[in-house]
Amino acid sequence: MTTLKGRRPETDMIHAGEPKPRIGGAAVMPIFQSANFETVEGEAYHDISYIRLSNTPNHTALAEKLCALEGSEAALVCASGMAAITTSLLANLCPGGHLLIGKCLYGGTHGFVFGLLEKFGATYSVIDINAPESWEDLLRDETRVIYTEAMTNPLLEVADHAAVVAFARSHGLVSMIDNTFTSPVNFRPCELGYDLSLQSATKYLNGHSDIVGGTIAGSGAQVKAIKHHLDLLGGCMDPHQCFLLHRGMKTLGVRVAQHNKSARQLAEMLAAHPKVLRVNYPGLASSPTHERAKVLFDGFGGMLSFEPDTEPDGAAALLSSLKIAMSAPSLGGVESLVTLPATTSHAGLSKSERESIGVSDSLVRVSVGIEHIEDLLADFEQALATL
Ligand code: PLP
Question: Residue 11 phi/psi, 5° resolution?
């Protein structure tokens, strides 16, 4: 383990987990495009290197880099964010476990928990993330996990994460968080006391919109138990995916610093715009969870959403008028993306379900990229002028 204790995260992003000595002197970790590795005499069957067992040199280097960034004891990479989420939930809940989970979730997580979890013999109850005093009533003897997201999507509200950690500890639950929107640059949940921090590496961690991937960070015991499930369920990351993620992670610090800065400027511009009714961004003083975000996070992130003063058709036309920001549902890449959650991430919910969580059909979500901010501001100005 080459974690550079005492160094700042930007240094660890580049140097932690790198092989020492460098392989063949290479400045960059090579891709080990090999499914099999020669068995060393006396090696146990489960210790042999094999891609599906997430223990090739590419996997190990990434796991060590992640530990350094997340401040966790152990870490693991896997095929996608959903592989990280589903494998961690299955490992901790099945069979017979009960889950406490927030309402405003990433669509895939919503689909898995509300649509599939019961098939695996587990149950769930929905909690109000803003009302910790109401959680105890939902506890059952078989409750094992409490699950949140760092910020809700697409309203960017920040849960009372300190209360989640305290609640989990006092009731012997495993606390899990999806840290995709914040990335470990802005928030390190394990340092706060979360048992598991999960990410879709597809987003900020890789940052270049060219792979899907997932990460799991937490205690040695937790990661080991989840790895056992991952090994058997098969959701491993392939070596080329590992290579691209490794490269992407080295620039995470500079990218996220720029995302933070640009999103704040765009949020401020939109908040002052006459054709915008509401802006959701935890960095704005008007956000209901701004004070909480200030305490928990080192930066407010690159995600925002806003309600233009128009009907849903007008919001769709606004997206088409943008010349730089591309209309696409993902997030966390260097390029700015816009989407209408009602027709993408939250299309699986009925209109009344969406309305109950505050997602209108005109709401626009923006993943603010790292293009020059003046160009981005001008792009949104000209698009809003068409309304
Ligand atoms: N978590 C969040 C917050 C997401 O936005 C996404 C994908 O958009 C995921 C998890 C799932 O990640 P992946 O697409 O890598 O499986």
Answer: -75, -40
